[in-house]
Amino acid sequence: MNNVFRLNTRRHQRKTVEFHAEIELGESLIVGTIRDWSIGGLCFQPEAAYVDGELLGGGEVLRKLYIDEILRVIIRDPKGQFIDLPVQIKWKGKSIAHECRAFGCEFLANDEKLAA
Q: Mean pLDDT in the chain?
């Protein structure tokens, strides 16, 4: 019998959250939910349909996403404050932890507010 083990290569412990957020893609904003985060990054689930690395809207491809692409995430924290951070896509596809299509991003700027 073959056993498959997935190694946890994360450097920081994740915290499950559910924050409204927007990802800035050029002239467009993609609305969605942050499903978890750590001091190192976050998991973003877009509201737009997301299939095979493409964001879909109205039956059309809105935007293809690329690993290592740099974006901006705009988060509204529980106190109503906005946090605007640069992030880099590290993975895309199915989030096993949240059972949804999502993409994982690493923060390019460390912000102490995110550790709380």
A: 79
